[in-house]
Amino acid sequence: VGDVHPHDVAAVLDGEGIAIRGGHHCAQPLMDRLGVAATSRASVALYTTRDEIDRLIDGLATVKRIFGIGER
Amino acid sequence: MNDLYQEQILDHYRNPRNKGYLERAEASYEDQNPLCGDVIRMDLAFDPPLSGDATPHDRRIKEIRFSGRGCAISQAAASMLTEMVAGRTVAEATALTKDDLLAELGITLSAMRLKCALLALKAFKAALYGLGSLY
Q: ipTM greater than 0.85, yes or no?
């Protein structure tokens, strides 16, 4: 999602009823190693449904729309 | 749905006001929020300049620049704050409260995001407090 900050990604998705983790994940050394301020993580598990994945994809489209990615 | 990212916030985030550095800053402070990695630096210049002899509180903030990185809330708040205090006297700027800034932002924030919004104000106030040692 471009350079949108993970906390912004997480907050927008939260507004859509989707919970992801955004930030350091208690792993600041890894963030330094990756050279990023923070990351977004969708925690997919056995019980995640196809519908939930679809909603995540729709949610990411909303993130892009709000932050104008693809318009510039 | 997403009431956090209203037009005024996104406008300041996409087109930040007073973003950059002052080469001859008379007061500066950089602060960060280690939990989310947001960084904000404030550079200030005064009129009359600090080398003059006007009383500290009557000086006006002639120029202000912010720099840093972080989420949309932190960057928009920093941009808005610079507009709120540019041209104000040090006394007026010192009296500015977090509620003034939050009212300008016009959104309701959770405790976590409150720290994003107030980082700029914290850095700004710290830069002003630094002036105290000069008098």
A: no
**Cβ atoms of B115 and B47 closer than 8 Å:** no
Q: Which residues of B sit within 8 Å Cβ distance of A?
A: 1-5, 10, 14, 35-37, 69-73, 113, 116
User: Residue B7's Cα: distance from chain center in Å?
Assistant: 20
Positive or negative, the Cα torsion across B6, B9, B11, B13? Answer: negative
Task: Judge whether B71 counts as a catalytic residue.
Answer: no
Identify which of A29, A13, A31 has the alpha carbon closest to the alpha carbon of residue A21: A13
Q: What is the tens place of the pLDDT at every residue in B53-111?
A: 666 678 899 999 999 999 999 999 999 999 999 999 999 999 999 999 999 999 989 88
Torsion of CA B21, B27, B28, B29, to 10 degrees: -160
Q: What is the DSSP letter of A18?
A: -
* pLDDT band at B1; cut points 50, 70, 90: very low
pTM for the model: 0.87
CB contact under 8 Å between B37 and A8, yes or no, is: no
Contact list in A for residue B14 (CB cut-off 8 A) is 68
Smallest Cα–Cα separation from A8: which of A39, A30, A31, A33?
A39
